[in-house]
Amino acid sequence: MAKIHTPEELESFRKDLLSRKDPSRPCISICAGAGCIASGADEVIAAFKTEIENQDLQAKVDTKGTGCPGFCERGPVVVIYPEEICYLQVTAEDVPEIIEQTIKKKKVVERLLFEDPATGQKVVREPDIPFYKNQKRTLLCSNIKIDSKSIDDYLAIGGYSALNKALFGMTPVDVVGEVKKSNLRGRGGAGFPAGRKWEGSRNAEEKIKYVIVNADEGDPGAFMDRALLEGNPHSILEGLIIGGYAVGAQEGYIYVRQEYPLAVKNISLAIRQAEEYGFLGENILGSDFSFKVIVHQGAGAFVCGESTALMTALEGRVGEPRPKYIRSNIKGLWERPSVLNNVETWANVPLIINNGADWFAEVGTEGSKGTKIFSLVGKINNTGLVEVPMGISLREIIYDIGGGIPDGKKFKAVQTGGPSGGCIPEEKLDLKVGFDELTKAGSMMGSGGMIVMDEDTCMVDVARYFINFLTDESCGKCVPCREGLRQMHRILTNITQGKGKQGDLETLQELSETAIEASLCALGKSAPNPFLSTLRYFKEEYEAHIDEKRCPALSCKELIAFYIDPEKCSACGICRKKCPVDAIDGAKKTIHIIDQKKCTQCGTCLEVCPSKFGAVKKISGEPVPPPIEEEKRTLTKKQKASVQ
Amino acid sequence: MSDIQLEIDGKPVQAKEGMTLLEAARGAGIAIPTLCHHEKLEPFGGCRLCIVEVEERGWTKLVVSCVFPVKGNIVVRTRSEKIDRIRKTILELLMAHAPDSPVLLDLAKEYGADRNRFEKEASFCIHCGLCVRYCAEVKKKHAIGFVDRGIRKEISFIPEIAAKECDSCKECFPLCPTSYLQAAFVLTGSLSFPSPAQEPPSEE
Q1: Is B163:B193 a contact under the CB 8 Å cutoff?
Q2: What is residue B203's predicted lDDT score, i.e. its pLDDT?
Q3: Which of A60, A55, A33 is CA-nearest to residue A44?
Q4: Domain-wise residue ranges, chain A
Q5: B54, B118, B148, B153: which to substitute to probe chain A, counting the most A Cβ within 10 Å?
Q6: Sign (positive/negative) of CA torsion B12, B17, B21, B25?
Q7: What distance in Å separates the CA atoms of residue B164 and residue B171, rounded to the nearest whole number?
């Protein structure tokens, strides 16, 4: 490929690319994102290639390994264009049938289609699946259309036209103005207006400036940025180059966590391709603007997602935050003006430049514009990535898109904003999703993690879990975070183990205040949120643990006991055989008893006890009834088990 | 360098551009407690004890004075109910490590901190980093450093350097507010410094 030297050359190259594409030609898109690969997408892709070769169909059909379309629950996902037929949970064995039926005979393979659990109806086209239908996918929609390793694919869907427009149709100040006008707010957590951040750097006196992509996505259960980097790396790169032009930077950095090998590979390849095509390097597309991009791999510290720690790590030092009373956009990397934005923020930039600020701002609430990607995980039917307009309610996300809670369980809370976010209860489900709205509810937008919890989840244990995560990830520099979280974790652990005492909640609140007010960086300042938000909405659970030594969700092991109801036990013996610690005593025709001293509360007996007996009970906060007297343990014929 | 006018605890204070709030206050004879600060060292901002309240254009916020650059027309309060409460909690957290440190005991008296509020920790290092930073910044020897991170972070002498440099220096010893440093030094010495008696005989 020869370098593209002018905007005209780019557009004629694009025309040429498109003229060689036949839109009616079948294309099989297979998700090659990390989630689907884990479910066997690689074998499916290989099987398609082999089958197409065997049948000598290379000239008639294309195959593509694409980025993540989001429906990870049902991966590997295969979409066949131009009809957009969507097959779910495809295995290599299904491939010959798909080729035979769908590609050759233009027939749909019914059994691989999505089936609406409510109506039992099959859905053929991808956009008609409720999971997708209720989303607004402006960023993620490209993932399934392009081969994530092909710059030509990106160009074919209009890639780098925003760069073209910015470089030759707009001044840097125009670009900053457009981003400002769109009111794009940072997708990484804090929601700072990107345009204002850019403007600050643009106006800073220092000549050398940097633009940086924060791809150190570390929230448990969150993988939005990974999907974008893996699936559509050029969109982020294009955003970054435009950002570099706007603020007057000469260099850009992509700080990506090492735990994302595919993302590192795809973005590195994208950079090489962009250099080859002339979208990076000296005099981009023949303009005066020169720019280069460097990939830096993070070593696995969660705190390096914090802006000052990230920059310290980029400088080659230990990734610890530094005191920041002057913003990074004025004094950041190597003390120079540095614009740091999250992956998703950068990916929005080309769209804003191409379609205009007004187009972007049409969607959303007063304070939060555009769409937001969430990773919907936990106790939810449709696990995966969802892109929704700001302002949608949590209820719509969880029930209309997520398909509700599995196994008929009751919804309890949704945790948003990552480990230092908060838990939002049922009564707030109609809350509109937006930066300010979530903060007001005691949680935060964060980078877009959304963990759904059902009635079996103990909220004290949830707080303990997240505080444990944050204690582990504290860099250890400042006292309120390092020592405060250590003590908070200890007290919360005690509470979940039935060792809570009066005054614990007050101590936790005081430690929270100290961490919020006095910590050095955002990690410590937001770390008490999991405790504070669960205390706000689920105080009675804390009190039950402390005052009654009872776990209302029947989840905390030290506070629960398993007990076999002698009235219901039929001596089938299943629980006795499955118990991993031999804690169950019994024999044929003899009612079973759990030895409470041996029991480890693993719950196996409850799981295996046949539902027609339902003899095993889980209790908390009450004494275990004394075991049935020895002479009464023999079952009469009538009661005898019919299972054996 | 231009003069900057500000107010600390109701007292007008003159400061120079580039100074920290802590320097300005101490220059005017106003005391602010610190544990990780040292005039010869770069500001660290680790212990957070020097937290103060700053009022600027009607907005009040808490800042850490050892790293906050002075500004004109601000009103600073070095004590308030909230500040005292935070300092008390910080001291109590540190006393879980070093309940007998004279420096901490003095401060605990001032702020009403209970040395036994939290369960005791095994290590009595409070991670002020004075030893590590003094050795690196002033002596430029790097004989002692931090190892590991977060709640597992510890100071550790590097035996190869410490065996050569420390005996004749030990300037960091009096800086340590808990004498953990001396203990660490003795431990490192006895575990890994070459002892003259045990050295293999020379090959002459």
Answers
A1: yes
A2: 53
A3: A33
A4: 7-142, 172-361, 371-454, 459-547, 559-639
A5: B118
A6: negative
A7: 14
Q: Which amino acid is at B66?
A: C
Among A448, A445, A459, A468, which residue's Cα sits nearest to residue A413?
A: A459
Please state the ipTM of this predicted complex: 0.92
What is the fold, at CATH topology level, of the domain defined by A172-361?
Rossmann fold (3.40.50)
Answer whether residue A589 shows pLDDT above 80: yes
The model's pTM is 0.90
pLDDT tens-digit profile of B79-114?
A: 999 999 999 999 999 999 999 999 999 999 999 999
Among A41-45, A218-222, A238-242, whose mean pLDDT is lowest?
A218-222
Q: Pull the structure tokens for residue B15.
A: 């400061």
Task: Assign domain A459-547 to its CATH architecture.
Answer: Up-down Bundle (1.20)
Nearest residue to A513 (alpha-carbon basis) of A545, A488, A540: A488
Closest of B55, B200, B43, B31 to residue A520, by C-alpha: B43
Q: How far is B151 from chain A (nearest CA, A)?
A: 6
Q: Superfamily for A7-142? A: Glutaredoxin (3.40.30.10)
Three-state DSSP class for residue A62: strand
CATH class of A559-639: alpha beta
Are the Cβ atoms of B96 and A520 closer than 8 angstroms? no
Residue type, A268: S
> What pLDDT band is residue A433 in, cutting at 50, 70 and 90?
very high
For the cut 60, the answer to whether the pLDDT of residue A567 exceeds it is yes
Chain B residue closest to A524 (CA)? B150
Instruction: Give the torsion through C-alpha atoms of A120, A125, A130, A132, to 10 deg.
Output: 150
DSSP, residue by residue, B32-78: ---SS--TTS-----S-TTEEEEEETTEEEEEETTTPBP-TT-EEES
Determine contact, residues A11/A285, Cβ cutoff 8 Å.
Answer: no
pLDDT at residue A642, as a whole number = 46
